[in-house]
Amino acid sequence: MNWKTIFNPFERFDDKLLLVVGLLGTALAILTGYWTGNRFSSIYRISRLDKVSLEAVAIPTLISFASAIIILFILGRILNNKTRLIDIVNTVLISQLVVIIFQVMDKIPFIKATQTRMASQRAHPSEALPIWDLTIMIGTTSIILIILIYSITIYYNGFKTATNIKKWQHIALFAAVSLLTTMICQILISKYF
């Protein structure tokens, strides 16, 4: 396994295997969301639930993944009419596998305790700044940023592989459509679910 495989598994692994892994990852995202009380309100956006139920986690998560798949498939067919649905499904599902880690982070006791102490510090700024807590928060934020960049890289490379885009205009259109889809999905799911 080399760097290319890590950042673009779509060129190395069979599409059916990736689909199975992606579907298992989606089930894991739903179960993890039920355990942690979080749901995907769009790809790359996880939000807390006031009332946790399997339905309250599964429906928004599936809608957010499906909306990204549908929009990317339409865009992919516009850019290259040979774009296959399975490749777009794999792109979205595989890119979200590492994002599941975000759901679990609140369940790690020392991170939760650190967040509580840092919130207390903000409420009482005259207290001494807890350096150890600040260090943990910076480390956690760095890990989140690395995971997010990796996931976006997988997302982009999957779409690029599925559609064979090369022009910068197509890449800019992909970025704009992805951002717009994510924002609209967040708004709609927050409003209706």
Automatic annotation (TrEMBL):
The chain crosses the membrane at residues 17-35, 56-76, 88-110, 131-156, 168-189. It is found in: Membrane. Its main location: membrane. It comes from the Bacteria. GO terms for cellular component: membrane. Pfam families: Yip1. Residues 18-185 form the Yip1 domain. Keywords: Membrane, Transmembrane, Transmembrane helix. It is a multi-pass membrane protein. This is Yip1 domain-containing protein. It comes from Chryseobacterium luteum.
